[in-house]
């Protein structure tokens, strides 16, 4: 399982637009092949900062979603509302993937 976190900062006046986009697409995203979970989080200290937290069967499933028509509609509309650069990253639960000994040493 791959976990994807996307942290997005919006101008306060753009938050309602973002929430409308998310609410109208969240069930469709959950139905994408390989999507196991999707949540929306709001920052406790910065109310115009939101994170999506999603679980995917694999990186391939996430990439298939990212190449889909749905993503092609949702992401550009969301991206147009950003007030700061997005922070997005993927992680695996510790111990579920083979440890790589080829990590940089410096």
Automatic annotation (TrEMBL):
Record key words, sorted: Monooxygenase, Oxidoreductase
Entry keyword Oxidoreductase: yes
Coiled coil: none
Source organism, top-level taxon: Bacteria
GO molecular function per UniProt: monooxygenase activity
PROSITE patterns cross-referenced by the UniProt entry: ABM
InterPro entries in alphabetical order: ABM_dom, Dimeric_a/b-barrel
Transmembrane segments: none
Start and end residues of each ABM domain: 2-92
Presence of the UniProt keyword Lipid metabolism in the record: no
Name assigned to this protein: Antibiotic biosynthesis monooxygenase
């Amino acid at each position: 399982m791959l976990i994807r976190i996307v942290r997005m900062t919006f101008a306060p006046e753009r938050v309602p637009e973002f929430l409308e986009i998310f609410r109208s697409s969240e069930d469709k995203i959950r139905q994408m092949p390989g999507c196991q979970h999707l949540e929306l989080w709001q920052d406790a200290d910065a109310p115009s900062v939101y994170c999506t937290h999603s679980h995917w069967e694999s990186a391939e499933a996430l990439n298939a979603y990212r190449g889909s028509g749905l993503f092609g509609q949702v992401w550009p509309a969301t991206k147009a509302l950003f007030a700061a650069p997005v922070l997005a990253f993927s992680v695996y639960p510790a111990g579920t993937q083979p440890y790589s000994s080829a990590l940089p040493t410096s």
